[in-house]
Amino acid sequence: MKNSIQNNKILIAPLNWGLGHATRCVPIIDAMIKERFEPILAGDGESLLLLQKEFPNLKSYKLPSYNIRYTKKGSSLKYRLLFDSNKILKVVKNEKEEVEKIIQKENIKGIISDNRFGVRSKSIPSVYITHQVNVLSGITTLITSKVHHNIISKFDECWVPDYSGKNNLAGELSHSTSVNLNLKYIGPLSRFEKEIPDNKGMINGIKKYDIMILLSGPEPQRSILENKLLNEFKSYNKRVLLVRGVLSDQFEITEDMKANKNITIVNYLLQKDLQKAINESLIILSRSGYSTIMDLEKLNAKAFFIPTPGQFEQEYLASYLEEKNIVPFTLQNDFELSLLEKVKEYSGFKFKRLLKLEKNHLLFNVFK
Q: Which end of the chain has the lower number of beta carbons within 10 A, N or C?
């Protein structure tokens, strides 16, 4: 007789800050289902929409939006966030109230929050997911990291999607000497699977695309980079796939975007199609967001990074991986096509995964 999952409902809620927080929740949700838990989705914006598209049969709830937007000038982002801090705290309070309502209505037995501060409860086990244990913010790093440590300490466990040893993906971002955070290193999270290439490093003998541009992240910086790259590639004569990273209908593919017939443009690709496209591309041109890094590491990809202006985390990750001779990068204003030649000088990501999610029954012990 099969065990009932009637009383194994787990609320899982990613932050709506680009699509990365949602995409890395996909393998967590898959693992929960495998272990006969019943995931209940929660969130807002395109982050929630992506999970709804990936898991159309799962119940979902909308949470209050943090409404965080990038500034056009990257260096102003830190001050924008400081200015909005009171508004964010009010949203967190409302978020906690909504979560308690969902707990009562659905008889929730546990919570997984990916960087949503208010998605927790004292009444049931609550887990926080972050790779950014230490929050880099320039001269205010010590303060922002302490604030984040205080948030993490309110949860029963903090799952860090990275390797615990020296050969890790996030360096000082994901590693802390604090003893009060109950950190659990669960290995990088990716929804993708590596296809086995032939002896020429190809999939079925060919690579479909010379360059795959994988955009992501909040506005307006997503659109700023998109416009810059479309201008750079307007006369490019090799095969390019542009995945815009937008799920909303308001982002139309215009005729101007279609001017170069060598560029294939799509708004987004879901899991299987995106995995296939990355495997069929020679070089991935993208932001240095951590979820993208985990996906590229899983797929053994060669890449070039353009970190989001003003986001210290992405700038640090890009620099860290360049120093390891894995991926080159440049700042957004400095990008030009000729820089892609540098990719040949770097190793790319090496497939070395020993994912702890394979031991699902141990990972989810906090809920049993």
A: N
